[in-house]
Design a protein that fits this description.
The protein has helices at 5-25, 245-249, 279-282, 317-322, 334-338, 343-351, 396-400, 413-416, 424-427, 453-456, 464-467, 477-480, 510-513, 533-540, 549-552, 559-562, 579-582, 594-597, 604-609; strands at 34-39, 45-46, 52-58, 68-71, 74-76, 79-84, 87-93, 101-111, 114-124, 129-134, 140-141, 148-153, 158-165, 168-170, 173-175, 180-183, 193-203, 208-217, 485-488, 491-494. The chain is α+β, with helices and mostly antiparallel strands and 679 residues long. A 5-stranded mixed sheet has the order 2-9-8-4-5. A hairpin with a 4-residue loop joins strand 17 (193-203) and strand 18.
């Protein structure tokens, strides 16, 4: 019996289905699928931003179809690589960075024994990627304030960043839109120097990455010159390449050909044709296709003179000399040195040591002494009315190197590497100007004349006893001494010079200059004697025989009220002494706990308070002994209060026998006879 092709196919499919059914019914006969070689590894950590997710699966029943792959529950279409009929690899290449953290992968296949699957997790931990870097590593920039930046690619948000330039921490900014960290220096970076940037970025998962790179700052142009070429190219013209006709005869070359170049061989010539042709004609900027190189060709033109700390010159000789003109006003070129007839320059070139002194005469005070740095004295300073020369040296270097100068220790760089784009070295032809003309000490400038004069003369806290006690009510040391004068070597010195002169230790503490005034001086009894009723009552009570502060407080000293040694000033703003200013109801150092000390104990209510209830006594409350006639009743010269308390019986003795006693109503028993109760 013949079976058509279509029927044969259906029969095969039916038999396959029966086989599958039988396989299901006899599932125990097959081992479970084995999933292995997972990537990223099960429970592992992945540092790739976009990993290739993969897993291999083998099954003894054979792999059929139905391949599935999910990442964090999202279905992906995996690619399948058949290893054999029973083993396949499923993989999926991610196309966008996975976020840092835990991720779950689900993989499943349909075997002839049924569908099987596996699930595993891995931890994504990818450090932020930094780049591109600006300025690029190893490059040279022509500005001293370049924008320093780095792009950031991160799977998580940026939590922190830190940047240093030449080892100094700087305040960078982060633009979330462009994902760029950047910093522009406020002060100009040193020219003719390499600078190193270090950047560390940490994301919100605590994953950090760091990068360091360097760039060079050179604001001056290099010498691009072809004069004096044969000084180096000694075999010219015979060594000149002659095989590239188009190099010279192209339409945009130095000698363009206007005929058929296919027949150029008939016009071929040798290098001798170049004799007499100036190299600079061909090797020039108007012919970009003709190669040319800067005069700087490495260490050959690097000065051997130490340029450390020099703000005037750069170490590259070709760059340095390009900045100047010859005596005739012409540009300095290679030929200026290499073709010079000056015996000094010829000798310097022959020495080959590349020292500045080989060709230049350098004075002992170079470079400072080569330029006029003496300022003009024809101007007046600010508050004192004095000319600058009366207090300052007009020679700028000695003046600005003084320890008291704000620019001490900065040397030439204080002016020649100024913190703004236009400093005095950029604007003045010489230093024979006034102190304000260079934009240094003018009002509103970064270093205004005596700009810190006010804050520099605020009295020190140690002087509070002087400034806050009503004696020297001032907030400006300079104002207090505005009329001061002193004799030095027979000359009278006034105003600022009283303090600001050699040999005087500057201080805002009065005691530094006036140690003889540490003890009270200028004491005024009238100001220190109370006149108010409350204070006079203290003196009249028999406790204090005067209302004058000094005798009462002699053992305590002035600082008790006027402050010092950690004590507060209690009389700020006071013009007349009054006891109650300090000794209020609660007191500050005397009569403290007045009410408690003059209240008899509660037990005295049963013995005294029944009768003396008019003394503020009541159940559980002893009498108030301040109800006596006056303080002097107890506090007098004849009454010994040693060991006495507010207990009535401390003074009022119990006398009598056999009868209910009463109590003496006076201080001492000798002055009254015992009284017997009439009960």
């Amino acid at each position: 019996m013949r079976i058509s092709g279509r029927r044969f196919f259906r029969l095969v499919m039916l038999l396959a289905a029966v086989g599958v059914i039988l396989a299901f019914s006899a599932g125990a006969a097959f081992a479970a699928s084995t999933y292995y070689d997972q990537y990223p590894a099960v429970g592992g950590t992945c540092a790739e931003p976009m990993p290739r997710i993969s897993v291999k699966v083998t099954d003894p029943a054979g792999i059929s179809t139905g391949f599935q792959l999910k990442i964090d529950g999202v279905s992906k279409t995996p690619k399948v690589r058949w290893i054999d009929s029973k083993t396949v690899e499923l993989y999926f290449q991610t196309t966008s960075p996975l976020s840092n953290g835990s991720h779950t992968v689900y993989a499943s296949v349909f075997t002839y024994a049924g569908r099987t699957s596996t699930t595993w997790t891995f931890n994504q931990r990818v450090a932020p990627v930094l780049g591109p870097l600006t300025p690029a590593d190893g490059t040279t920039v022509d500005t001293q304030k370049p924008t320093i930046s780095a792009g950031v690619t991160s799977a998580s948000a940026i939590a922190s960043r830190s940047m240093t330039v030449d080892g100094v921490a700087v305040a960078s900014t982060y633009d979330a839109g462009t994902k760029t960290i950047s910093y522009t220096p406020f002060q100009r970076l040193a020219n003719d120097a390499n600078h190193t940037v270090s950047l560390t970025v940490t994301d919100t998962n605590g994953v950090s990455t760091s990068v360091s790179w360097s760039f060079r700052v050179q604001i001056y142009a290099s010498m691009v010159d072809t004069q004096g070429c044969t000084e180096c190219h000694t075999t010219y013209p015979s060594s000149h390449p002659m095989s590239n006709c188009w190099g010279c005869h192209d339409g945009f070359a130095p000698f363009p050909a206007y005929w058929n170049m296919d027949n150029m061989q008939q016009y071929a010539h040798g290098a001798d044709y170049l004799v007499g042709i100036d190299c600079a004609y061909c090797h020039a900027s108007q012919f970009p296709s003709v190669p040319r190189h800067p005069a700087n060709i490495g260490d050959v033109h690097q000065s051997a003179t130490n340029m450390g700390g020099c703000s005037c010159h750069v170490g590259d000789l070709t760059i340095e000399h390009t900045r100047y003109k010859t005596d005739a006003g012409e540009d300095i070129t290679c030929a200026s040195c290499h073709a010079s007839t000056d015996p000094v320059i010829q000798a310097g070139m022959a020495a080959g040591t590349r020292l500045c002194a080989d060709c230049h005469t350098i004075g002992s005070n170079h470079p400072y002494g080569d330029v006029d740095h003496i300022a003009d004295v024809g101007e007046t300073a600010d508050l004192s009315g004095k000319k600058c020369v009366e207090c300052h040296e007009m020679d700028l270097m000695p003046e600005h190197e003084k320890a008291s100068s704000s620019s001490a220790g900065t040397s030439c760089g204080n002016c020649h590497e100024f913190s703004t784009d236009s400093g005095p070295a950029d604007t003045l032809d010489g230093w024979n100007q006034t102190c304000t003309q260079g934009g240094c000490h003018a009002a509103g400038s970064p270093t205004a004349m005596h700009a810190n004069q006010t804050t520099a003369h605020i009295p020190a806290s140690e002087s509070s006893a002087c400034t806050g006690g009503g004696c020297h009510s001032f907030t400006d040391v300079a104002a207090l001494h505005s009329e001061a004068a002193t004799e030095v070597a027979g000359a009278t010195i006034t105003s600022c010079s009283v303090c600001h002169r050699n040999g005087v230790t500057l201080s805002k503490d009065c005691a530094t200059c006036h140690p003889d005034r540490l003890d009270p001086h200028g004491y005024d009894p009238v100001q220190h004697t109370a006149s108010d009723t409350a204070s006079l009552a203290c003196a009249a009570a028999g406790c204090h025989d005067t209302a004058e502060a000094m005798p009462i407080h002699a053992e305590l000293g002035c600082k008790t009220c006027h402050g010092g040694d950690g004590r507060p000033n209690l009389v700020t703003g006071k013009t007349r002494f009054a006891c109650v200013d300090c000794h209020t109801a609660s007191g500050v150092d005397y009569h403290i706990g007045w009410a408690a000390k003059h209240r008899a104990p509660a037990s005295d209510y049963d013995t005294c308070g029944h009768c003396h209830h008019g003394w503020g006594s009541g159940p559980g409350l002893g009498p108030d002994i301040t109800r006596h006639t006056s303080c002097a009743t107890c506090h007098n010269a004849t009454m010994d209060l040693t060991g006495k308390t507010a207990h009535c019986a401390d003074c009022h003795q119990n006398e009598g026998s056999g009868v209910k006693p009463t109590y003496y109503h006076q201080r001492v028993s000798e002055r009254h006879s015992p009284v017997t109760s009439s009960w």
